[in-house]
Amino acid sequence: MKNQKIALVTGANRGIGFETAKQLGEQGITVILTARDVNVANESAEKLKQQGIDAYGAKLEVTSAEDRKALAAYIEEKFGRLDILVNNAGVAPKRSLFEKVTAETTEEEFEYVFETNFFAQVYLTNALLPLLKKSDAGRIVNLSSILGSLTLHAQADSPIKDIKVLSYDASKAALNVFTNHLAIELEGTGIKVNSAHPGWVKTELGGTEVAPMEIVDGAKTSVELALIGEDGPNGRFIHLGEELPW
Q1: Minimum mean pLDDT range among 37-46, 145-154, 197-206
Q2: Rounded to the nearest 5°, which phi and psi values hold at 236?
Q3: Could you say which protein family the record assigns here (predicted)?
Q4: How far out from the chain centre does Cα 53 lie?
Q5: pLDDT of residue 205 exceeding 60
Q6: By CB neighbour count within 10 A (0-12 exposed, 13-18 middle, 19+ buried), where does 21 fall?
Q7: Cα–Cα distances in Å, from 136 out to 169, 188, 230, 235?
Q8: Is position 38 within any domain?
Q9: HEC profile for 94-119?
Q10: Does a structural domain hold residue 107?
Q11: Does residue 54 belong to any structural domain of this protein?
Q12: Tell me: the pLDDT tens digits for 153-180?
């Protein structure tokens, strides 16, 4: 275990999160899969164990301070450090991403989306930073979205010109700011922090009927950023090896 990397993937019981854990595990990395329900997390880990992957399940409701603290204590006790953190868990508004209702966005929607997509990611990362600093080369991957790019939203010919959902887009833009600021703050520590745009993937969030990308491809950017070397990007917004504008 001393020389084997330890990775934590949040929201890893299905979709991109599960596939990310699988692909990391296939690289010989020990993976911790979290879910709101510990039984679901354990079941997901068991699926990977049956494939020869060293996998563990752990309970985490990312918005719960108690769960975040307990998870950090569990990792500290069992592994002593953390090498990779993939902040994969996220939510979308409980309506179509193709509705343009900026002025009508409710307080409830803002709070629901930001609590999970931004605040929880920041708080969890902060809780796990002491463990990441014990790694020789810590890696933090924040699952963002191309919808968080202000540059692309401002372009008339943008591929996302018809998608303007304030709560979701703003939460991902805020997460990108966190990536930028934390990467700069951690320069010299060996820890690299990047935002990943997985693509429009056939998931429950992305839509299984209209999304063009398969889940196996949607996990590739997160995995690549989790495994970058010393000369890899830091404080960048990436999709399948290509840099996106903030």
Answers
A1: 197-206
A2: -125, 165
A3: Belongs to the short-chain dehydrogenases/reductases (SDR) family.
A4: 21
A5: no
A6: buried
A7: 34, 12, 10, 18
A8: yes
A9: CCCCCCCCHHHCCHHHHHHHHHHHHH
A10: no
A11: yes
A12: 999 888 888 888 999 999 999 999 999 9
User: For position 184, which CATH number holds?
Assistant: 3.40.50.720
pLDDT (average), residues 5-12:
97
pTM of the model: 0.94
Closest CA to 4 of 71, 86, 78: 78
By CB atoms closer than 10 A (0-12, 13-18, 19+), residue 17 is buried
193 and 183 in contact (C-beta within 8 Å)?
yes
**Residues belonging to the active site:** 168
The whole-angstrom separation of Cα 185 and Cα 182 is: 5
Contact 234, 192 (CB under 8 A): yes
pLDDT tens readout for residues 103-121: 889 999 999 999 999 999 9
CA distance 189 to 98: 41
Tell me which of 156 and 7 has the higher pLDDT.
7
3-state secondary structure the chain: CCCCCEEEECCCCCHHHHHHHHHHHCCCCEEEEEECCHHHHHHHHHHHHCCCCCEEEEECCCCCHHHHHHHHHHHHHHCCCCCEEEECCCCCCCCCCCCCCHHHCCHHHHHHHHHHHHHHHHHHHHHHHHHHCCCCCCEEEEECCHHHCHHHHCCCCCCCCCCCCHHHHHHHHHHHHHHHHHHHHCCCCCCEEEEECCCCECCCCCCCCCCCECHHHHCHHHHHHHCCCCCCCCCCEEECCEECCC
Q: Which domain holds residue 124?
A: 6-91+117-146+168-243
Residue 162 lies in a domain: no
